[in-house]
Design brief:
alpha+beta; Glycosyltransferase; Ferric Hydroxamate Uptake Protein, Chain A, domain 1; five-stranded mixed β-sheet; three-stranded antiparallel β-sheet; 16 helices; about 45% helix; disordered N terminus; binds COB(II)inamide
Amino acid sequence: MRQYHQLPLVGFLLFSLIPSQLCKTCEVTEENDVHLNSLLSTMTTSKYTSGTQSANVLLSLRLVGMQNQTLKQQLSQQVRSSVEMRESNLSSGQLAMIILALGACHTPDETFIYDHHLISHLQNKFQAEIENMGTHDGNPLTNYYQVSLDVLVLCLFNGNYSVTKVADLFSPENKNYYLRGQFSVDTGAMAVLALTCMKRSLINGNIKAGEEDLKEINNHIASLVKKILSQKKENGLIGNIFSTGEAMQALFVSSNYYKESEWNCQQTLDTVLTEISQGAFNIPIAAAQILPALMGKTYLDVSKDSSCVSGSGTFNISSHVPKSVTTPNPPSNISVNYSVVITKTYSTTVTVPSGSVFLDVMEEAQKINETVFGFTVEKSSWGPYITSVQGLKANNNERTFWEILSGGKPLSQGVGNYVVHDGESLEIHWSKY
Ligand code: CBY
């Protein structure tokens, strides 16, 4: 579809000789700005309900050198007030993401981090994750994606943590890398970023540790990179569409751990661009998590002085809002089967307007029978998250959750985004991850 400049041989040779500390990236060319613009308008035209969501978007915009000062100011304000209003309620990874966003680019936001002692709060929250693992069969309070974010941020912002302890925690055999028996690419990628930050600090002498720790960290990175690459699909996506951006970041910073033939970055990039044009990244956090990789940036760039100067051209955000992907059919109703599965299955048929999402079906079913289909929901940065059905509550200490499926297959979107189809069989299962 797109023409790519052939690197002349000399350039190619030079490229192969780049010292291993540098990243190998592939980036979009100017002719694809249109795709990036659609991501940017998803991020800029949304209403932000959670501080973490704003933080993710702010981080992304700062990393790629977006010029829109007013928007960045607004986001930064939202992020700071979410800390002032509910610091103690934030989970460890939420706080880590907030620090990452505020600390990117050496803006006055940096002072906020230190005035509010956010690094020492994060140290405490990270400590609580570790303690919970000690008392609850190795299960953290949240999950390993967040624990990895914690370590990444403690490393980037010179917080205190034990290198030996972290090296042990991040052993690739740890069950927390797996969700429903599947290696979680999102989680593995975040761990590679955290471990790479630690490795760099050790090599630069910023932190002290024994030879053994460095060796262990190296082995973990190697093994995690292998696992990430093993999740590469034929079309180049890694894991699924929503984990690909983070996987790309991990592969950018670890290019000396795999052969050039093992990953065709360009193919991955092309597939992502096609998916963007089909509206796959239509929620702000999804757009925010893919954008840095498309510009060859990673979360490790946060510590660099140059991380926030924009590249050649600045984006030209079109003022028009992209059309919603759901075609505005004339109002008509569809009917779907809906079941709650615990040990017994409870089923019903529900009629909803076409274009409805999974959550609408659950609400209709709840109206039919509150006892059987009653549920509770919480806001998350990815949209609504189901916390209980029939009063049965998901519990991280027991690794239980409510899994959503269609036609027996787990969905890769949440209840607030998955648009249901006529005649579909939807289920929500009491599951273990
Ligand atoms: N973020 C987090 O703490 C979440 C980390 C994450 C790995 C995350 C995916 C990746 C990311 N980039 O943020 C993650 N999901 C986790 C850890 C979990 C578990 C959360 C519980 C815990 N211990 O903290 C759990 C329970 C296994 C889980 N995700 C469940 C679900 C399902 C939610 C259903 C419900 N009850 O509402 C669901 C819908 C899968 C299903 N079929 O049931 C699900 N997750 C999905 C689809 C996703 C993707 C969202 C994609 C989208 N477009 O909405 C995801 C990006 C994500 C969010 N989960 Co989880 C993974 C993917 O597809 N690549 C840090 C915080 C600061 O933001």
